[in-house]
Automatic annotation (TrEMBL):
Pfam families: FAD-oxidase_C, FAD_binding_4. This is D-2-hydroxyglutarate dehydrogenase. It comes from Zhongshania aliphaticivorans. InterPro entries: FAD-bd_oxidored_4_C (IPR004113), FAD-bd_PCMH (IPR016166), FAD-bd_PCMH-like_sf (IPR036318), FAD-bd_PCMH_sub1 (IPR016167), FAD-bd_PCMH_sub2 (IPR016169), FAD-linked_Oxase-like_C (IPR016164), FAD-oxidored/transferase_4 (IPR051264), Oxid_FAD_bind_N (IPR006094). Keywords: FAD, Flavoprotein, Metal-binding, Oxidoreductase, Zinc. PANTHER family: D-2-HYDROXYGLUTARATE DEHYDROGENASE, MITOCHONDRIAL. Homodimer.
């Protein structure tokens, strides 16, 4: 929907200024570019304006105005998304939550805290730590992603094996629907079977039903003495074998993997050293709470067993907090490191037991069609989530590269469908995955999604064109 269909841009901007103030509506080129996109580079941002509300009431007034003047809204959090879900490319009004970053109402008994939508993930993590608690949803963009965006995409990250997705830590939501209604959903209750849980509809909806303005987030106890192994593995079946062995006997907080190609990029880009001299096709990073000497001895015994079985060829265990951080950087710095190659990203998943065959099938397809493209693999083995990154050759035009990758994506998603997986494990659908939604969802499911959107957003003004048309 274009804002110019029924109202002039000047009228819309004037009315927005009346709600939030003249200085909180921006239409200069720099701000339109920065706030009209996310981390994807496949679409050119072209919003009408960016509005910066400071309260839930102002957000509600903006949405009511959008219904009245028939302009579309695109929510903007930390803009760290990887599916084009926060792209405004058709004259929409971007609603930024940068000024809604207040934390309040901490309850140490319930271990809950109320966050405005613009609270930075790391801000919440630091708040929890200051109060002797822990917010466990963590990922590389924690320093810039916002809680509202995390909820809208049901963000996952590196601790899912132990702590689950963002969905599992949302105790309540305050939202403004597409029609301008303010709803308070679940209100922090642990047990609430009084009808439908509408809160869960807004989690992962990518702003297509309405805007999240406030969230009651659950916290938990802080883990103690986190310790990590990085283990070199010759083949992917070895990774699955050691995952099964460690998972059977220890409570892991993370189990990640990355390829030698990914490791080479990180080491070349940063001052982080290789974990050990041996070169292996794949590496597993597993983390656990080393609570006492008995747990440490058990972990070392499991490591030695995996070496004896031939699953692991080399490894290292962190002996200090600094070493733990460096081992994690080998995994966490991958996305930032490869960004210079404008990677085409696929965020796919299947059932954990099917991961080795799944990865082999995808890699065989991509290398057969485009043998000159470099492939970087990493992901979250503990939840069956693989990140396939195809790097753009230096001499290739960006548009040509994305066109070629889109062609191979059809084959990749056919494999996803064959394995009963998801075309988007944690990044959302947005614009980039929209053409492939049917590989993970049936026609009946998509039809019901459209009906749900119609209920909450009858005029179709909320993040239009995302997930489905």
């Amino acid at each position: 929907m274009s804002a110019s269909l029924t109202s002039s841009p000047e009228t819309i901007i004037t009315e927005l200024q009346a709600i939030v103030g003249d200085d909180k509506v921006r239409s200069d080129a720099e701000i339109l570019l920065s706030h009209g996109r996310d981390w994807t580079k496949a679409h050119t941002p072209a919003p009408l304006a960016v509005v910066f509300p400071r309260t839930a009431a102002e957000v509600q007034a903006v949405v009511k105005l959008a219904n009245q003047l028939a302009f579309a809204i695109v929510p903007s959090g930390g803009r760290t998304g990887l599916s084009g879900g926060a792209v405004a490319a058709n004259g929409e009004v971007v609603v930024s939550f940068d000024y809604m970053s207040h934390i309040s109402d901490f309850d140490p008994i319930d271990r809950t805290v109320v966050c405005q939508a613009g609270v930075i993930t790391e801000q919440l993590q630091d708040f929890a730590e200051e109060h002797g608690l822990f917010y466990p949803v963590d990922f590389a963009s924690a320093g810039s992603s916002q809680i509202g965006g995390n909820i809208a995409t049901n963000a996952g990250g590196i601790k899912v094996i132990r702590y689950g997705m963002t969905r599992d830590w949302v105790a309540g939501l305050k939202v403004v629907t597409g029609s301008g209604e303010m709803l308070e959903l679940n209100r922090g209750l642990l047990k609430n079977n009084a009808g439908y849980d509408l809160r869960q509809l807004f989690i992962g909806a990518e702003g297509t039903l309405g805007l999240i303005v406030e969230a009651t987030m659950q916290l938990t106890r802080a883990p103690k003495n986190l310790t990590a192994f990085v283990l070199g593995v010759e083949d992917f079946n070895g990774i699955m074998n050691l995952f099964n062995r460690f998972q059977a006997e220890m409570d892991l907080t993370a189990f990640e993997f990355f390829s030698e190609q990914a490791l080479q990029k990180v080491v070349a880009h940063s001052a982080v050293p290789r974990p050990f001299e041996s070169v292996c096709p794949y590496y597993a990073l597993l983390e656990f709470e080393c609570l006492n000497d008995e747990v440490e001895a058990q972990a070392m015994a499991l490591f030695e067993t995996c070496v004896e079985e031939g699953w692991v060829s080399d490894g290292v265990m962190s002996q200090s907090l600094e070493q733990l951080k460096n081992l994690w950087r080998l995994r966490e710095d991958i996305s930032e490191t490869i960004s210079k190659w404008t990677p085409y990203k696929n965020d796919i998943s299947t059932i954990i037991s099917r991961v080795p065959d799944f990865l082999e099938s995808v890699e065989t397809l991509v290398t057969a069609q485009y043998p000159d493209f470099e492939i970087i693999w990493f992901g979250h083995i503990g939840d069956g989530n693989l990140h396939l990154n195809i790097l753009k050759p230096d001499g290739m035009d960006k548009d040509e590269f994305f066109k070629k990758c889109a062609t191979v994506s059809t084959g990749v998603f056919e494999i996803v469908a064959k394995f009963g997986g998801s075309v988007s494990a944690e990044h959302g659908v947005g614009l980039l995955k929209k053409p492939y939604l049917s590989y993970s969802r049936s026609e009946a499911e998509i039809a019901l999604m459209r009906q749900v959107k119609q209920v909450f957003d009858p005029k179709g003004i909320m993040n239009p064109g995302k997930i489905f048309d």
